[in-house]
Amino acid sequence: MKVLAISSSPSRGRNSDTMLDYFISGIKKVPGIEVEKVYLDDIHINYYKRQNSTGAEIEEEDFRKLTDKISKDISGLVISTPTYNFSVPAHLKNFIDRIRFIALDLKNTNKFDQPRGMLGHIKTYFLVSGGTPNWAEKILFFTFPAFWLRGVFLYFGAQVMGAFYSGDTNTFNNPKVLNKCYKKGMRYGRKLASHKGQGILENIFWRPPQTKN
After folding, report:
1. For residues 45 and 62, what is the distance between their CA atoms, to the nearest angstrom?
2. Beta-carbon contacts of residue 20 (< 8 Å; ≥ 6 apart)
3. Terminal-to-terminal C-alpha distance of the chain
């Protein structure tokens, strides 16, 4: 099994990036799982527009290789991100917009004229760092990246295995949080290896209709 781990933080070695490293260490404790870590900053991706909505452009060779892996080669996808103004860094949002051509079948729609998701072979997990205290994030969960990321990838047809929010501006120096990331990574790896599916809430999550344009 192959897992692709994407670090979307521009600050390498800091909070969400370190969370991902510990999560990966946990996954690697499970035999038979190969993990590849990618820094999104290293991938040239043009901004989304209608003209590039159906595939990678000529100069986007690394992006093309990345989308090939996501659509064909991997069983798991882990994304780590900082929280920027209750959202994610611009290049992560752009990446998610751009993978639409491998994530949605625009020619195969449901009764709401909503495209069918094409990432059903992938089990996802999201790691999010941020300075808002955990108690506040739990109350206002719908305004934070983890909630939005879950919704987007469920819309893409992927399985969502969980998400973890740090709530500490010095997460990279917080052994308690990082140990949790390690344990959650090991648990995610075991679920992946045993072919366990997502939880009940994810199974009943309602995907709001969207137009195809």
Report:
1. 8
2. 5, 7, 37, 78, 80, 127, 181
3. 35
Q: Match domain 2-204 to its CATH number in 3.40.50.720, 3.40.50.360, 3.90.226.10, 3.40.50.740.
A: 3.40.50.360
Please name the amino acid found at residue 23.
Answer: F
Q: Provide the residue ranges of all domains of the chain, joining segments of one domain with +.
A: 2-204
Q: What are the CA-CA distances from residue 205 to residues 103, 186, 187, 198, 199 (Å)?
A: 18, 26, 23, 11, 10
What is the Cα–Cα distance from 182 to 21, expressed in whole angstroms? Answer: 8
Q: Is the pTM of this model over 0.85?
A: yes
**CA 39 to each of CA 80, 131, 199: distance values in angstroms, whole numbers, following the listed order:** 10, 22, 29
pLDDT, tens digit (0-9, with 9 covering 90-100), for 116-173:
899 999 999 999 999 888 888 888 888 789 999 999 999 999 999 999 999 999 999 9
By CB atoms closer than 10 A (0-12, 13-18, 19+), residue 83 is buried
Residue 116 has which token pair?
């069918």
Q: Which of 127, 153, 176 is nearest to 5 (CA)?
A: 127
Alpha-carbon torsion, ordered 178, 29, 81, 71, to 10 deg: -170
40-93: pLDDT as tens digits: 999 999 999 999 999 999 999 999 999 999 999 999 999 999 999 889 999 999
Q: Angle at the Cα of 65 (from 59 to 70), degrees rounded to 5?
A: 135
Report the distance separating Cα 161 and Cα 198, nearest Å.
Answer: 5
